[in-house]
Amino acid sequence: MAYITLDKQKLKNNFEVLNDFFDKQGIHWSIVTKILCGNKKYLEVLLDLGVTNCSDSRTSNLKIIKSINPNARTLYIKPPAKGVIEEVVQYADVSLNSDITTIKMLSEEAKKQQKIHQVIIMIDLGELREGVMREDFIQFYEDIFELDHIEVIGLGTNLSCLYGILPNADKLIQLSLYKQLVEEKFNKKIAFISGGSSVTIPLIEQNILPKGINHFRIGETLFMGTNVYNNTSYATLKQRVFKLYAEIIELYEKPIVPSGEMGTNLEGETITFDQDDIGKTSNRALIDIGILDIDVNHLETTDETIKIAGATSDMIVLDLGENNHEYQVGSVVEFTMDYMGIVRIMNSKYIEKRVV
């Protein structure tokens, strides 16, 4: 049976390093937990570390967080759909918003639940994902700031996720200027400028982060130990917090090149082979995970002698070459994954989740 592991000590190290780093900068931060896909066992590990601020894009995940620690401060990090308004108000202390109609619905629902719902208004700074257009922002704020059950506590932006637009000092200075405009025009205090994600951390290290930016939403750097800005690893952080293990369920020496008329595979691809490999053989192993569980493009074996030869819905084929490490049926193969690989495998109900 295939399983994924979370290394508690590595995660603890990364949390403590980042928490100390942000504390010294006077920056508040919320951990983006969506990589855990609402897995209660893993969320308990995270909250046991002393985490008190969590962000997620699924209300069901925020509900689990609140069931573990009702005092955890939760942030819903995408524009809410109409069908989840009630749950957003119930399980999220704060939500990111960029639509007037949605915020009015949040206000009406907050009134029903006898709450004041806090929001961070998102501004589009060029990524063209969520966010009010800059030229419309002041009018947008004027339309919502007097809603009885809404408290605007911050302004924010999102960069890099869709088109890879990188944050820089100029874009984040713009975000800080909108805070000043709001405070002067409406005599309202804005507590947070949420301009930071994992990709923004290098701006702090380079001492070019505008002083007004005081809130970060961090996921990948915590869980992967990576510098997202330039796709490297931080020396002070642990990598490979997650690992995947799968069992070999068949192993034979077989031809490298298939025989017969070639069509398309499960994913509609036409596969080509090196003609020089005709007549050659290698040891081919099947493992008990497939495309339903993970995209093999986000998966790597820790044994460099093993290559991924292909995948079907429920099985991945490995090329073991001469099998110098003497794998056999029942042997377990270890893998590492990138961020999207972990999210995909965490969503599979067929993969056991373990803590080490």
Automatic annotation (TrEMBL):
Keywords (A to Z) from UniProt: Isomerase, Pyridoxal phosphate, Transferase
Cofactor names: pyridoxal 5'-phosphate
Segment forming the signal sequence: none
Domain (Alanine racemase N-terminal) ranges: 7-225
EC primary class: isomerase
InterPro entries in the record: Ala_racemase (IPR000821), Ala_racemase_N (IPR001608), PLP-binding_barrel (IPR029066)
Family annotation (Pfam families): Ala_racemase_N
EC number(s) reported in the record: 5.1.1.1
GO molecular function, one term: alanine racemase activity
Protein name: Alanine racemase
